[in-house]
Amino acid sequence: MKIESSANPMGDTLKYHCAVTEDLPGIGARARQGVMNQPPLDHVEAWVFDLDNTLYPASCNLFAQIDLRMKAFIREVVGCGEMRAHEIQKAYFHAHGTTLRGLMDNHGVDPEVFLARCHDIDHSAVPPSPALDGALHRLEGRKLIFTNGSVRHAGAVTDRLGISHHFEAVFDIAAAGYVPKPAPGPYREMLARHRLDPLVTAFVEDSARNLLPAHELGMTTVWVRNDAHWASEGSDGAHVHHETDDLVVWLEALLAAREAGGSPPAS
Fold first, then answer.
1. Using CA atoms, how far apart are residues 80 and 186, in angstroms rounded to an integer?
2. Contact yes or no for 174/168 (Cβ under 8 A)
C-alpha cells in the first residue's frame, strides 16, 4: 500500500457542533439494500472509501479496543477518573469531530503519540474477506481510502482483509493536518492532492454526516449503515444518495447489474 505523506498539512481548524437527528423512517436493522436519491453510478471513475466500519463490518468492534485506550490516555493527560474521561471523550468528539482534535486544541496533545497509543490494538478481530477482495478486483476505477484514523491503522486493517493491493493511497488524519471529517477542508485537500474530479468520484462512508461535504462538492455518496446511533446522525438529507447494510452485498449487486447492463442495486 502506498503511504500517504502528511507533508503540506492543512492549516484550517475545526470548531463545530453536529445536530443529532432521528433515523430515517422505514430503515430497520438490515431491512434494505436500498437506494435513496440514486444518481447513476456508470459515470464513477474513482472510489474513495472510509475505513472503519465501512471496509469491514461494525460487528468486528475494533472501536471497543480503541475506546478503552482513548479513555486511558485521557485519564493520564487530564488527571481524572474513568467517568470524567468518558465525558471528555464524547464531548470532544461532538464538538471537534474527533477526540484527538479536542485533546490537541485543549491540552496540546502530540497527535502522533495519541495515534500510536490508541491504534496499538489487536486487529485479528477483522477476518480476511475474499468476497470484498473479489468485488474490488472487478470494480473499475481508482480506489483510495479517506480516514480519520492513521495510515498505520489503515494498513493493518486492509492487510487483515487481504485488500491492501487495491488502494493507490491512504489519505489519513495526518495528511489532513489533523482536521477530521466532516470539516470540508480535508475533502478539498484529498481531491486536489490526488487529482480527483468530484463529479466522477464516489465516496463510501458509514457516518452519514460525513457524506454531506462530499455531496456538496459534487461526489456521489454511499452510506454503509450500522447500528451505532452516531452513524445515522445527519442522515435525513438529500446528501445520502445510496445506502446499504452490507458493502460487499451492495458492490456485488452493482457489479452484477453493470455486467448485465442494468440499473444499480435497489430495494
1. 32
2. no
